[in-house]
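Known limitations

Structure tokens in this collection are predictions and should be treated as such. Users comparing against experimental data should check residue numbering before alignment. To illustrate the layout, the record for IS6 family transposase ISPmar1 is reproduced below. The input appears on top and the generated tokens appear beneath it.
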Amino acid sequence: MISFKGAHFPKSVILYAVYFYVRFAVSYRDLEEIMNECGVDVDHATLNRWVEKYSVAVAGEARCQKASTGRSWRMDETYIKVKGQWTYLYRAIDKYGNTLDFMLSERRDEAAATAFFAKVIASNGWPDKVFIDKSGSNAVGLFNMNCLLVMHNWCWLIEILQVKYLNNIIEQDHRFIKKITRPMQTFKSFNSAASTLAGIEVAHMIRKGQFDRPGLSGFEQFAELAG
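Generated tokens:
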């Protein structure tokens, strides 16, 4: 359960503001005006703090509570601008389009790819196969995962498939993330970007029905994840 101790606003108000920001394409100035129209006098700087603090916490709960995913994965990265520089949002989904995990990185190299695959496997288990693009670093990252399997005497390895047209599903999935981040223009810090993107990914997972909560609205599901 996420703690809201010390907050000067009700939990429901905070979560509504955070969910609205990560689900819809609005700026903090827009959200400030929306909240004021709802009778909540809160400035954009406070809204920014809420999003950065609570998005990460909700994302942690989402990783634990999402429905089980398939073992045929699609992995790719997209570009996110931070402080005027491009960074890399690593993302993976299963063949049904369900989000597996995500990670923002300042670099696109073997170390980043290896760290991402280790993170995805830790939260989803081992895949049977992974479809990637022609990126050499991603292929090496998966090779490193297979080396771990060999070291632990496993009798099978992850099948690595570099087939571009079969990876179109994740390239399409990036579009939701890019649509929400577009009004944000550029993030002012890496931590701010990583926190906000975590919330956006959770909103996208809710939209895709990954939490098996029929009958609940998107906000109600987001609030339930917060406990």
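For this record: The chain has a mean pLDDT of 94. The first helix runs from residue 11 to 23. Please report discrepancies through the issue tracker.
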